[in-house]
Amino acid sequence: MALIVVDAGVVIAALDAADANHVAAVSSLRAHATDDVRIPASALAEALVSPCRRGVAAEVRQTIASLGLSIVPLEEEIAARAAAVRARRRTVRLPDALVAATGEVLEADVVLTTDRRLARLPRFRLVGGSPT
């Protein structure tokens, strides 16, 4: 069983049928259905912004839970690694650095992303083909 970390873009795309990366995100999550798939708490927060604006956050949280994603809390080691990622790569935003650091700390086999820029980082694999 592989350990997979997903970023917010994958979850957002999987939940939104109109998203350009929806089919690829759903397919990727299905392909890893028997793996240990985790989402950093910071990425979960990012994925819940739009649902909160629309007043459907509770329903979306239930849907995310039904996907079998384990939530990884933001702990000191992840925070410190995220700072190091930001220090090394100034173009990587803090939310993305937190996802990268989570992958590092957990020694994930792969980190799934819909962001082409992040796909260049170690462990990251691009899901879909739409630029984000």
Describe this structure in words.
With 132 residues, the chain is α/β, with parallel strands linked by helices. It has a domain at 3-72 and 109-126. The protein has 6 helices and 5 strands; from the N terminus they run βααβααβααββ. It has a 5-stranded parallel beta sheet. The longest helix has 14 residues, at 41-54.
Write a brief structural summary.
This protein is of the alpha/beta class and 132 residues long.
Structural class estimated from helices and strands: alpha/beta
| Total DSSP helices | 6
Helix content: 40-55%
What order do the strands of the largest sheet run in, or round the barrel if closed? 3-2-1-4-5
Outline, from the CA principal axes?
globular
Note poorly predicted spans.
none
- N- to C-terminal distance: 29 Å
Helix and strand succession? EHHEHHEHHEE
Rg over alpha carbons = 14 Å
- What is the number of beta strands? 5
Largest β-sheet summary: 5 strands, parallel
Proportion of beta-strand residues: 5-15%
Query: Mean pLDDT, as a whole number?
Result: 94
